[in-house]
Amino acid sequence: MPTKDEVVEALRAVEDPELGMDIVDLGLLYDVEIDGPKVKVIHSLTSMGCPAGPMIQEDIVNVASAVEGVEEVEIELTWEPPWTPDRMSDDAKFILGFG
Questions:
Q1: Residue 93 contacts residue 59 (beta carbons within 8 Å)
Q2: Which of 8-12, 16-20, 55-59, 76-80 has the lowest mean pLDDT?
Q3: Is the peptide bond before 81 cis (omega within 30 degrees of 0)?
Q4: 5, 50, 58, 80: least CB-packed within 10 angstroms?
Q5: What would the pLDDT profile of 30-81 be if each residue is shown by its tens digit?
Q6: What is the pLDDT of residue 98?
Q7: Residue 16: exposure state from Cβ atoms within 10 A (0-12, 13-18, ≥19)
Q8: Are 29 and 43 in contact (CB under 8 A)?
Q9: What is the CA radius of gyration of the chain?
Q10: What's the pTM?
Q11: Each residue of 22-32: b (16+ CB within 10 Å) or e?
């Protein structure tokens, strides 16, 4: 059975192409729920009109599906709470000039 930590670590390979950073450090990954071989990834985007949204979601499914023991991946796009740069890791803030 996959663990939340394994899935989160794998999702570091999913990059927001506009910002050139992964969704974990950007704070776009809100939660990962594990139910046996089923994984639910709850995430947001930097804006509602983000043109990279479909590509990011496809990458989430591909990367999470590659984790050993994962048989099904569900994606939930949420806007609550709205994403802000405050959700970014300290490293991401530094690299992008927010800190």
A1: no
A2: 16-20
A3: yes
A4: 80
A5: 999 999 999 999 999 998 888 999 999 999 999 999 999 999 999 999 999 9
A6: 83
A7: buried
A8: yes
A9: 13
A10: 0.94
A11: bbbbbbbbbeb
